[in-house]
Specification:
By secondary structure, the chain is of the alpha/beta class. Helices cover about 30% and strands about 15% of the residues. Bound molecules: fructose -6-phosphate. The site of fructose -6-phosphate (F6R) has 14 residues, from loops.
Length: about 250
């Protein structure tokens, strides 16, 4: 796990974009799995800019997304489908037919997860973008998730619903379930880039970095992967034992 600490969120987003841009310039036909939430928004803004400047293109990229609420209508402003199109896909040159999403409208979640899992097997993910939940979730793999978990329907923890209620009118409106790729699916990616920003992520980040892989902190399973880059801003990294060491390393 390579850890990079940046001064602030702006630098974090810039550094993350540099990494994605470099990868994409090397391999324009990449398979990228995206995350939603507040954290990657700065990265997405930088990537949109890079497309506008002609530095990169998503023309040949195949995309997947980590998760989706269940049930939820695609055109609901709170769906992750809406989030990705509104904040990113509509502003870059990705082809709609290359975008893969878990369908939160399905009547048969089990069948939908099998369909997605099959697609994931067909296209190996080259780059996985992740955020981290205050409870250490990655995707919607809540504490208790096993390292062998696959794409499935899960129950959201109350703290996740509370945390995500900022995107809804009230907490009651946050769906109780979600469809998510599993830890095993995430670990099968060639490279993983995890972003963490702000003080409220500090405890989760400390657990992920300093604890051995364990189910109470699903993000800690990333230690089982050989190619993980963590970019955290100073606030998110403030509880790490070796923060001075990480901060001194050249970006
Ligand atoms: C979203 C996802 C979640 C978020 C996490 C952090 O697709 O997979 O695991 O990455 O909840 O969310 P933010 O960035 O909003 O703090």
């Amino acid at each position: 796990m390579k850890i990079i600490i940046t001064k602030n969120y702006r630098e974090l987003s810039k550094k993350a974009a540099e990494i994605v841009i470099k990868e994409l310039q090397k391999r324009p036909k990449m398979v990228i799995c995206f995350a939603t939430g507040s954290t990657p928004l700065g990265l997405y803004r930088n990537l949109i800019e890079a497309v506008g400047e002609g530095k990169i293109s998503f023309r040949d990229v195949i995309s997947f997304n980590l998760d989706e609420y269940y049930p939820i209508k695609k055109n609901s402003k709170q769906s992750y489908y809406y989030f990705m199109f509104h904040n990113f896909f509509n502003k870059i040159d990705i082809k709609k037919q290359n975008i893969n999403f878990l369908n939160g409208e399905t009547k048969n979640p089990e069948k939908e997860c099998k369909r997605y899992q099959k697609k994931l097997k067909k296209y190996k993910i080259d780059l996985q973008i992740l955020g981290i939940g205050v409870n250490c979730h990655i995707g919607f793999n809540e504490p208790g998730s096993s390292k062998d978990s696959g794409t499935r329907l899960v129950k959201l923890e109350e703290c996740t619903r509370k945390e995500n209620s900022r995107f809804f009118k009230t907490k009651k409106d946050v769906p109780k379930m979600a469809l998510t790729m599993g830890i095993k699916d995430i670990l099968s990616a060639g490279k993983i880039l995890l972003l963490a920003s702000g003080k409220k992520k500090a405890k989760a980040l400390k657990k992920m970095v300093e604890e051995p892989p364990n189910k109470d902190c699903p993000a800690s399973f990333l230690k089982l992967h050989k190619n993980v880059i963590v970019i955290a801003d100073k606030e998110a990294a403030c509880l790490l034992k070796k923060q001075k060491f990480y901060a001194k390393r050249k970006l």
